[in-house]
């Protein structure tokens, strides 16, 4: 099977095209990449939906015109929308972090978390997160360590907001592998 290297970690195989018209991207382990493909394309390539089941609303031109309308009407994010999007990003970063990161990758991740704590747009959330960092240095020695560290940081906020704690043994199912 031929593969084309599009990025050091991601690949397309035989220029396979998904139902949305985009190329299917694979991880280095040969599995379809969840965070690189749309949900529809991911479902198609993992056999959850047929490759011929192209819903009308996924056609490129309609999607583009809907997007234009949405762009015009969307408001800036509030603390909740910003938070949800940011946690999605942070947990997804952990899901793609190397299983055995080298020193440079570990240093980059520590720097990223440190800078993130200074620029997070909800300033009072950022202040609390900085305090959390001082008491709980980021664990960057492996993907699982980092994933659990972000999970615990997220739980700290959940508790502060009176929400349930997430079981951090399940972080990889939620943010990388899925539940099946
Ligand atoms: C660094 C940071 C600090 C924040 N501080 C504050 C704050 O001080 N005050 C405030 O009001 N809001 C804060 N927020 C926002 C807040 O955490 C939520 O994102 C927001 O309230 C929306 O909550 P939600 O119920 O939609 O789900 P979220 O808490 O955003 O979670 C999204 C999804 O993540 C999963 N999840 C939940 N907990 C965990 C976990 N521990 N590990 C892995 N996955 C999990 C669940 O599937 C959940 O549906 C902060 C956000 C960030 C990123």
UniProtKB/TrEMBL annotation:
Entry's EC annotation: 1.8.3.2
SUPFAM superfamilies reported for this sequence: FAD-dependent thiol oxidase
Cofactor: FAD
Subcellular location: Mitochondrion intermembrane space
GO molecular function per UniProt: flavin adenine dinucleotide binding; flavin-dependent sulfhydryl oxidase activity
Superkingdom in the source lineage: Eukaryota
Top EC category: oxidoreductase
Keywords: Disulfide bond, FAD, Flavoprotein, Mitochondrion, Oxidoreductase
Membrane-spanning ranges: none
Highest classification ranks of the organism: Eukaryota, Fungi, Dikarya, Ascomycota, Saccharomycotina
A GO-annotated cellular component: mitochondrial intermembrane space
Reaction(s) catalysed (UniProt annotation): 2 R'C(R)SH + O2 = R'C(R)S-S(R)CR' + H2O2
Location of the ERV/ALR sulfhydryl oxidase domain: 75-175
Classification via PANTHER family: ALR/ERV (PTHR12645), FAD-LINKED SULFHYDRYL OXIDASE ALR (PTHR12645:SF0)
Protein name: Sulfhydryl oxidase
A Pfam family that the UniProt record links to this protein: Evr1_Alr
């Amino acid at each position: 099977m031929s593969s084309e290297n599009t990025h050091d970690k991601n690949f397309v195989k035989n220029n396979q095209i998904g139902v949305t018209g985009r190329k299917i991207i694979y991880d280095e382990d040969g599995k379809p990449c969840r965070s690189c493909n749309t949900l529809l394309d991911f479902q198609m390539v993992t056999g959850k939906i047929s490759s011929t089941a192209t819903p009308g609303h996924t056609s490129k031109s309609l999607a583009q015109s809907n997007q234009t309308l949405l762009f015009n009407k969307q408001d800036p994010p509030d603390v909740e929308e910003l938070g949800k999007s940011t946690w999605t990003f942070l947990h997804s970063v952990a899901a793609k972090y190397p299983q055995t990161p080298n020193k440079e990758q570990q240093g980059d991740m520590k720097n990223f978390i440190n800078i993130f704590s200074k620029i997070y747009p909800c300033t009072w959330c950022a202040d609390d997160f900085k305090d959390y960092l001082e008491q709980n240095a980021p664990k960057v020695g492996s993907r699982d360590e980092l994933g659990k560290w972000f999970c615990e940081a997220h739980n700290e906020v959940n508790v502060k907001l009176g929400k349930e704690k997430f079981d951090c043994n399940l972080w990889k199912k939620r943010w990388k592998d899925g539940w099946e």
